[in-house]
Design a protein that fits this description.
Number of strands: 0
Low-confidence stretches: none
Strand content: under 5%
Distance between the termini: 67 Å
Length: 285
Amino acid sequence: MMFAPMNFRRAKVITTTIVRGTDSSWELGWVDLSRHRDLLYFLTWRDIKVRYKQTLLGVAWAILQPLLIALSLTLFLARVVKIPTGGLPYPIFAYSGMVIWQFLAQSVTEASNSLVANERLVSKVYFPRLVIPLSSVLASLMDLLISLVVLTVFIVYFRIAPKLSLAVLPLMIALAGVVASGAGFWLSALNVKYRDVRYTVGFLVQFWFFVSPIAYPGSVVPERWRLWYEMNPMVGVVEGFQWALEGTSNFPARPVLLSAVVAAALFFSGLYYFRRTEDTFADFI
């Protein structure tokens, strides 16, 4: 009696690994961001290089944009309208406002489109998506540092003595970074699902410019509207930045405090919405 040989085949076990972010929308995920700090550095450096690649003037654009606008404001407003600027010459007043404003405007514009611009990266590889808008803000910081060199030349030319109030400058830059990051979180996440958001960013930035004390001091705003006006987080940032250069008048404590409160609310609400919708980015993008 013969028996047919039996073939025993090893069963194949297929395992599936699902990688996703943390469940808490409020958790920033410092540990996860720390693990991907090299990616944050790479994306920031890439944004800086791409911004000036194959450009005629290169990094000079970081100087020319705020400088030309400040000169235009000086020619048409300082001489015609005679706007009061406290203890600062109007060129420094306008250029210092444009320097910090250009940082915010560039950060918000770049961050709002950052996820869509990195579509392949978002849909193929897992990493904390916060890295992408944050890299846009950090890349814009390079332009701000370059513009500060020209601001130093203005200070020397107008013979403004350095004061201890200059120590406030880094704090105002950090506060502007919080505002830009919060707005970037909101707009970048919304832009993934609603592509018409990118068409409103330009209008939003222009409107934000006119309601910020860049071409004019906040003191010209009527007192009855002053509190509502200071709810704009850039009011305290710009006024604090300009006060750090002037340093003789009273510190704008209320505008800076209101700016800090609104900036924190904008940052954490944008962070919450971003983390809550992060898992759906690959589906919509």
